[in-house]
Each structure stands twice: as structure tokens, then as C-alpha cells.
Amino acid sequence: MSAPTRTRTHIPTTEPGVAQATTSTEVPQLLRLLHLASPALPIGAFHFSQGLEYAVEVGWVRDERSALEWIGGIAQASLATLDLPVLYRLHAAWVLDDRESVLRWNAFLIACRETAELRLEDRHLGASLLRVLVELELSTELFPVTTAHEQAGVAHATAFAFACARWNIASLDVLRTYAWAWAENQMLAAVKLVPLGQSAGQRMLHALNTKIDTLSARASHLMDSDIGISTSLQAVASARHETQYTRLFRS
């Protein structure tokens, strides 16, 4: 009896340190969303507290309960009533390649930021995300990426919606992912500032997660006339943070 023939399975290899090219259609949408929501995304979201640092400084936020109330309140009265409904419209406009609507809602969102600090944050995150997207082979002539550290006039939600539209992400998933990234960043800021333990931070994030789906769904049904914010205390905190004597977060 002759010996059985052995076949060798060919395993493709690449040079060490060289990533294989992958087209966007080969990457599942879930992985695209995880990429956009990752705290490792180099857009500098960790630089900003959105007024939370001042709130801790003056004792408005002092423990896990008050931190959750602060973040949850902003989520309901600003994120869900301004950022998410505008993000929903921006995503639809990018899908339709409606440049006029993109520019209009982008300008509206930046104009709604009540302090120079909040406008700085929005523009910084938007410009930084556009630069990251260029590395992922996504760019738009509507907001050309410049070599300047800050690119005037592009909101974070605008760049986020652009990426999701090009990757064919469903609108409700866009809102959920954006809200999750916001909530996680606020939780991390609270853990650092109050300070809180990691377990407390995860409990807060778990509690916020139970609201994200509801707030996202509600935001997708808001009329244009219902879009706005009601977070005057956050505006005060952000404005006073600009001159706070000691700061961990950028102003």
C-alpha cells in the first residue's frame, strides 16, 4: 500500500508590520461603528469635560449619584434634543449628497454652542475626525482638510455623519454610537475629576446605556421646531471653566 499523499495548505503571509489592504465593503458595519466610537480614536475627546470640571470644582458634582444626575441631565436636555436630531439630519443629507443641508445644519449646530469653549471643542473634534478619515481613504471637498491644527467651521457630528453615510450605516445605529461615545467620554471625565472608582464608572455607564436607545429613537422623530437645548447650568460651568485657576481639561 502506498503512503497517503500529503497536501500542504497555503497560508498567505505579509511582511511583518505591513497591513493588508481591505475595502470598506469587506468590513462589517459593527466594526466600523466600534472604530468610530473607540476612545483610542485620535481626535482628542479626552481633552474636554463640557463644564464637568467646573461643576466638580464648586461641588455641584461630588459623588457617583450627582455625577450620574449631571451627565444624564445633559443627555436628556442637550444631547437628545440638539446633537442627535441634528446628527440624524446631517446623516440623511450626506446620504442624499445634499450639500446645502449639510452646510446649514453644520452651521446651526456650531451656532447652538453657548460658550467659546464648547465651540472650540466641537470644531476641534470635527477637524480631527476628518484628518483621521483621510487616513481611512474618506474625504470630502465640502470640508477640505488643511494643515492647520483647527479647521474652522466643521462640527464633530458633521464629520461623524459623513463617515457613517459613506459606510452605509443605518441612521439609528449612527445615533446610538454617537451617544455611546459621548456618554463614555463623560463617564471617564467624572472618574478622573470627582474622583470615582472604575466600578462606579461602569455602573454609571450601564445606567446611561439604558437610556441611549430611547433617547436616540426619540431624537429621530423630533420636528425641526423642537430642536434646542435646556442646559443653562452647563453653559455657566463651561463659561467659568475658561478662567478656572487650575484645570485638567482644555479650555
Structure description:
The protein is mainly alpha-helical. It has a single domain (50-240), classed as Urease accessory protein UreF, CATH 1.10.4190. The protein contains nine helices and no strands. The model is unreliable at 4-22 (pLDDT under 50).
Précis, in short:
The protein has nine helices and no strands. The protein is mainly alpha-helical.
List keywords for this structure.
251 residues; mainly alpha; Urease accessory protein UreF; 9 helices; globular
Order of helices and strands: HHHHHHHHH
Write the CATH homologous superfamily: Urease accessory protein UreF
For this structure, the CATH topology is Urease accessory protein UreF
- Report the sheet with the most strands, covering strand number, pairing sense and barrel closure: none
Architecture per CATH nomenclature, i.e. the level-2 architecture:
Orthogonal Bundle
Low-pLDDT stretches: 4-22
List the helices and strands and how they pair.
Elements: H1 29-37, H2 52-57, H3 64-96, H4 99-111, H5 116-135, H6 156-166, H7 171-193, H8 198-219, H9 232-241
Helix pairs in contact: 1-7, 3-4, 3-6, 3-7, 3-8, 5-6, 7-8
